[in-house]
Each structure stands twice: as C-alpha cells, then as structure tokens.
Design a protein that fits this description.
The chain is an alpha+beta fold. It has one domain. The chain is about 45% helix and about 15% strand. The chain starts with a helix and ends with a helix.
Length: about 60
C-alpha cells in the first residue's frame, strides 16, 4: 500500500489527522491532496530543518 492510499484510509477513520506527504517526485495525484487543511507535501531530498518546520506547522495547524 502506498502512502497516498494509507493516508486516505486513515483520514476516513480520523478526519482530524494531520498528514505529511513525502516523495522524490512532484506527483500530480498527491499535490491536490497536499493542499488540504492539516496537510503538507515535501519533495525529497530535503534538509532536516525543512522536515522539522513541516512537522511544527502541522502540529500547530488548526
């Protein structure tokens, strides 16, 4: 199961879940989902500081 399908299944059970998508490709199928509230998308590779910023932003999201 890919990350997108996993996120969809988890979100159906817990709509308040926060999701951070990570990929080596800017997938057209994931990008629209990553614009949803409490969701972020990070393209690999990335420095740890950017990952940390995404996690903090998701935790602080309303």
């Amino acid at each position: 199961m890919g990350g997108r399908l996993l996120a969809e299944k988890l979100l159906s059970a817990r709509p308040d879940l926060r999701v951070l998508y990570m990929s080596g490709y800017a997938e057209d199928a994931v990008l629209p989902l990553a614009r949803a509230p409490r969701t972020r998308f990070r393209t690999k590779p990335f420095p740890a500081s950017e990952l940390l910023a995404d996690v903090v932003a998701l935790l602080e999201a309303d």
